[in-house]
Each structure stands twice: as C-alpha cells, then as structure tokens.
Input
Amino acid sequence: MPQPDQPYAETVARLVTQVTAHRGRLTTLEQRADAVDERIERLTEDMVQALTIRKGPEIVAWHELDPRQYAAHLADLAAWMDTFLAAYPSAAASVRPCWKDHKDAVTELGLIWCEFTRIYTSERPSLDEALVFHDRWLPGVLKRVHQITANCATGCTLTRPAWDETIRRRSPW
Output
C-alpha cells in the first residue's frame, strides 16, 4: 500500500519489485505443480500396469490342447503332484493314482496347481492368500477329485474317446 508521505515513483518501484517477486514465486509453484502432476501421472500408469499384470501362471485350457501339448502339461502337473502329495500326505487320500486318466480330475488339479504356484512363487507370499487356498480352494478340489475317482478300481484306465479329440469350438465365456 502506498504511504501518503512517500513519493509516487518510490511506491511504484516498490510495487514492481513485489510483483516481480510474486511472479518468481508463482513460476516456482507452477514448476512444482507440473512436477507433481507428472509424478501422479507416472504413479497412475504404474498402478494401472500393476493391476492389469497377470499374477502367476496362466491356467491350462486342457480341452484345447493337442495330444502332444496335453502330455507335456500332464507330465509337469504329475511332477508337481508328486511333490505336493509328499508335502501334504493327507491330500493323498483324496487323490487316487488313476487321477491322470480322468480329464475332469486333471482340470481340477491343474487349477489348484496354478493357484498354488501363483501364491507360493511370488516375491512375498501372502498369508491371507495361503489361508484362503488351504481353507477354501484345496478342500473343494480334493473333495471333487475324490468323487470323480470314487468308482474306479485300482489301476483303472478310464478312457473317454470323445474327450481325447481336441475340442475345436471355443467356449462363449
């Protein structure tokens, strides 16, 4: 504010100095705001990427595999099952030796294989995901696999010729 006893030129010079200082501060604040905007944009992109990245292995669409692919995936699943059943002997009561001959059992066990792998091969395995796996997913799969193989005699080789052909149509979902 101009003082009544100050000359007009001094008042204008002081105001010009103040306005120039405020412009400098505004420029600095604009640069900081731009930097914050850029950082928010980068963080948003990182968050979108993190949320859209698939966690863990892709599931195996067993019904879409040709015989060679099916055999290769089945060998991998069987190797994992050997390790899994050694670590969880109580699960062995539900998984009969003929499970590989039942495509629906293969599908069930394949899904649990993927979920187990997703949870336990992450950089920091999640306790809550492990608890859900053991409380919800694993018992359901073991129950269904047991039901699938319940009517088989020891050493059964259930064959379903129609299932051995690759399904060429795609599921609508």
Notes: The CA atoms of residues 101 and 159 lie 7 Å apart. Confidence is low (pLDDT under 50) at residues 159-173. The radius of gyration is 33 Å. The chain has four helices and no strands.
